[in-house]
Amino acid sequence: MSDNLDSSSHQNISCQFQAQMENPLLWPIMEVLKQKPTGWKVHTLATHLNELGFIPALDPVPEKELFKKNFLIMNALYQLQETLYPDNWLQVQAMEIELMCGRYHGSTHAIDHQDPLREYYIDWLNYEAEEGEVKRLLNEFWTRYKKFVGGSETDMDRNRALSLFELPLDASPEEIRKQWRRLALRWHPDRDEGNTAQFQTLCEAWHVLRS
């Protein structure tokens, strides 16, 4: 009975952990795909993100370094695919990554939530790291991205951040994450009606709320 409770408790903690993990590579990858929607493979995308300064050293063992880099990129791609759907379609294949903008009438594109490859890369536990290590790594990514998008240091606090997100003070982590994605997509500078200043402010708010 005790073992079952421990297992159930571990699963609940894991689910909460995964639900709150927003891979900051989503937005750098989207910017890259907006500039060049086709012709990407995981390894060429990894090289480009590394040149932009978004991927630090992940592991001293070369084989693990390669695996973790691949995992983080695939995880971000699958999260971004769901974020962009159904207005846009992001094809996620290791050797053929393509962003298809606009709705495709008559298209059979749809997210397969039963896809074992997708399930594997969405599950943070497969990254082979403790929760603390993953959070530390993603905080490093977020710091790099915040410098990349710019923005000034402000007296942003949780109350102001929630107000910008148009959420109540008791908003759940899941509600905050969903609102962040919705607002980020709306104001992202690469969108036709995007606004760089508004996007930077939202980034600062998200940085406070995700802490």
TrEMBL record:
Keywords, alphabetical: Chaperone
Keyword Cytoplasm: no
InterPro entries per record: DnaJ-related_N (IPR021059), DnaJ_domain (IPR001623), J_dom_sf (IPR036869)
Coiled-coil ranges per UniProt: none
Protein name according to UniProt: DnaJ domain-containing protein
Domain J: residue ranges: 157-211
Phylogenetic placement of the source organism: Bacteria, Pseudomonadati, Pseudomonadota, Gammaproteobacteria, Vibrionales
UniProt xrefs under Gene3D superfamilies: DnaJ domain
